[in-house]
Amino acid sequence: MNAQRRKELVRIREALDALLGELQAVAEAEREAFDNLSEGLQASERGQELEGNADTLDGIADSLNDVASELGAIA
Asked: What is the pTM of this model?
């Protein structure tokens, strides 16, 4: 890989890292919103939606982290 393409991959990795941080912040906010609900509300449809959103965002963040790591391995 030439230096220009390597620099581009490093730039992409840095952008992914920034996005990952933002995504994790949103996931944490969603998790906190769920945690701050009473037990009764946590069991409600809205509570389950909050928890599901947080779980989904965590999964996306994990996948994005894997992509960033793989890019780092070749850049």
From this structure: 0.85
User: Whole-angstrom Cα distance, residue 55 to residue 30?
Assistant: 9
Q: What is the pLDDT of residues 2-22, one digit of tens each?
A: 999 999 999 999 999 999 999
* DSSP secondary structure code for residue 37 in this structure: S
- The torsion of the CA quartet 33, 42, 51, 28, rounded to 10 degrees, works out to 20
d(CA 5, CA 61): 25
CB atoms within 10 A of CB 2: 7
Task: Check the CA dihedral 36-39-43-44 and report its sign.
Answer: negative
